């Protein structure tokens, strides 16, 4: 879509405001709204100025001026604003016209450019399965003399004996009992359907939605794959619409990986493949799970670099509350066909040559999608470049339920890092694969690690309520 086509859309749809958006290092979107009457073709050339020093991890106050340049291919109408508003995703540039090396969206685009320059293929496709919880109430605080959180859901099993207005009608979702039940147990069919309606109106191709395993309103909506940057844009749109639809229903949606103790967490399984033109490069009939050697090398790169990669795909302290055995969490760095207990799964049911892909199951939705997808692609391309064979390195294939292996057998399997600090240590030691082609810079990685270490420290130095249960009476 050209700038003129965007202007035509503004006129045809009676748009009053144009909302220019960018994404920070953590993956949070920020926006500045201009009256539609002030948006001209020059706006798409000159961009929209903003203060980079007010964005965590960007610029210092002495060099704060930055520019958002709109991407005319990323527009959609905001389904929530009272005044008709058009949303436009932007790339970030310095005032002298240089691409800003800390712009996550720019990094994603550089990864796509590197794929082509490396001569491997023309296009990388991504499809995330981003799970979430819908709660009825959330309260939390963290102070000097108190620390607590509370979440509640009308369908949670702990409310089976709660007195409710009009009477308790039962049909609560049992502990780990939430996988695809029909109503009335699944009480959130309509809210997920409304989310899907708005997502489709906003340009996403929705494949399905359903209740997920955990109690208390865990759900999942799957949308169609697309190229790397477009998929990251789509995931930002997806989270925006899911969270705002929940709010319209008087509820709250969260993509936090582990908001509940003792039940399944929310992951973001990421399907990915590479094409050369119209030719799928991951398919080879007769190979393991019909995978080509190139695909196996891609898997080798993902698993070899996984400890460092996880600092970008699972970048929160809460991520590692999910990455523990026993909750379908893919903590074991192996690959397998159809096996959901492996970090890398190769889907085999009803898969065509063009649908042949790998699924990295470890990530979660606290990841900045632009950074996470770019990092996964760079790890996979490094595996292709170096012909990393995951079979030779002991990464499988392992077609068994890993959780049922003996302790001796489990001891042979490499696991994901046990904490955010461990993942950051791995990234410090293994980052060169990210800097190939100038996709990530060493300065960006150092800055990112510093920001994430501050987060980890902020959590580690605070008193946890459970410590009172363990130690107060000693």
Q: Would you write up a description of this structure?
A:
There is one protein chain. This protein has two domains: 3-100, Ubiquitin-like (UB roll); 123-465, Creatine Kinase, Chain A, domain 2 (2-Layer Sandwich). 31% of the residues lie in helices and 20% in strands. The protein is built from 14 helices and 18 strands. Helix 3 runs parallel beside helix 9. The longest helix is centred in the middle third of the chain and has 21 residues, at 228-248. The radius of gyration is 23 Å and the shape is globular. The N and C termini lie far apart (67 Å).
Give me the secondary-structure category: alpha+beta
Average residue-wise pLDDT: 94
Beta-strand content estimate:
15-25%
Helix percentage: 25-40%
Determine the oligomeric state from the structure: single chain
- CATH topology-level fold name of the largest domain: Creatine Kinase, Chain A, domain 2
Question: How many β-strands, per DSSP?
Answer: 18
Which stretches are poorly predicted, pLDDT < 50 over at least 5 residues? none
EC number: 6.3.1.2
Main location: cytoplasm
Binding site for L-glutamate: 264-265, 322, 328, 340, 361
Enzyme class: ligase
